[in-house]
Amino acid sequence: MIDVLLVEDDIHVREALSQTLELADLRVVQAGSYLAAQPRLDRDLQGVVVSDIRMPGRDGFHLLAVARRMDPDLPVILLTGEGDVPTALRGMAEGAFAFLEKPCDPDELVSTVRRALDLRRATLTARKARSALEGGDVAARMLAGASPQSIALRETVRTVARGTDAVLIHGEPGTGTSKVAEVIHLMSQRAGGPFVKRTAPALDAVSLAEALALADGGSLFIDHIDALPAALQHQLPETGARLLLATNQKAATLSRTVIPDLSFRLEALRVHIPPLRDRPTDIPVLFQHYLAQACEQADLPVPEVPPDVQARLMARDWPGNARGLMNHAMRYAMGLEDEPGTPRAGLADRMRAVEKSILIETLIRHEGQASAAARDLDLPRKTFYDKLARHALRPEDFRPDQGV
Fold first, then answer.
1. For residue range 307-349, what is the model confidence (pLDDT) as tens digits?
2. What CATH number should be reported for the domain holding residue 113?
3. Which of 39, 12, 36, 17 shows the shortest CA–CA distance to 28?
4. What is the domain range of residue 156?
5. Would the pTM of this model clear 0.90, i.e. be above it?
6. Contact call for residues 333 and 294 (beta carbons, < 8 A)
């Protein structure tokens, strides 16, 4: 497997670029021309392409066009001489992931390639997930995402679905607790029974009894369980309907609003949905999914999402999580990517967002191992931890066993 297909006709430049990438632990395959690179360009290429533009014979633009015809999601990074602005604009207009001037700054080259690789891996994982759903995997079909956290979430949902006890689903607003509950129901032995959804603030003794009766033999999903009065919590049965309960609170604080008996019942089976800001590599996958849905609903053609747009999406915090991303996809489908009057972040805020995205991507790549992540970013350990604290990030949240 390769990380970078490097296409450059000047052997000295090619060797220097290759050395820079290999020192960053990236696997490189060199090609001296388009003809040498062409056999490796296919839809299953695991890595990304870095190509010079000006080469004898077929140039970098031809390579870009062939690559995009073969796989529109394959990131291609173009290189050219200093100050060639018209060429850069043409490259970006034709779908290049990024454009770098030669001689390339080593840090910028490595950083750009890593961002492209993250996007490529997310794309390939999403394709694998789509293949899985064709085999009947409900979790793969309904819970999109390619990050380690999303993979762990789907696996936990599959495991929890096999149980029979009450389940606690917790995540920030907009993360999709009701969808996770539905997947658990559909993958459980009760899939043939009813799936009834209610929100706790709207329930009283009568409506709760009615909901339990409707859900008998199936599953009853109650959102905002922390808002259900204690008297009604006592009425939640252990038999009949399986209880799928959700909260936007942290699970550790739920005991303040939930009666002890129910709290104990919810200790065994818990599903945590991580927020989007902790899994930025999921954002392009989810955005494409929501965009396709929005275009189908509005009877619109699905617009292309260029790599630079995907990169901007990944750099945002998305406080509304999946719901906010879904709303943005609808606006994008209708050509309203930026709403009139929406204030733009200043340079400092944008730089903070980019720094946070890089920290998250590095922690994901190293599975939460702080020392390895710090070395990757060439940061002293104290500086690395100071930056994590500034962005409220914890390495342990990115370890594979912390997905739930």
1. 767 777 887 889 899 999 999 999 999 887 654 444 455 666 6
2. 3.40.50.2300
3. 17
4. 138-274
5. no
6. yes
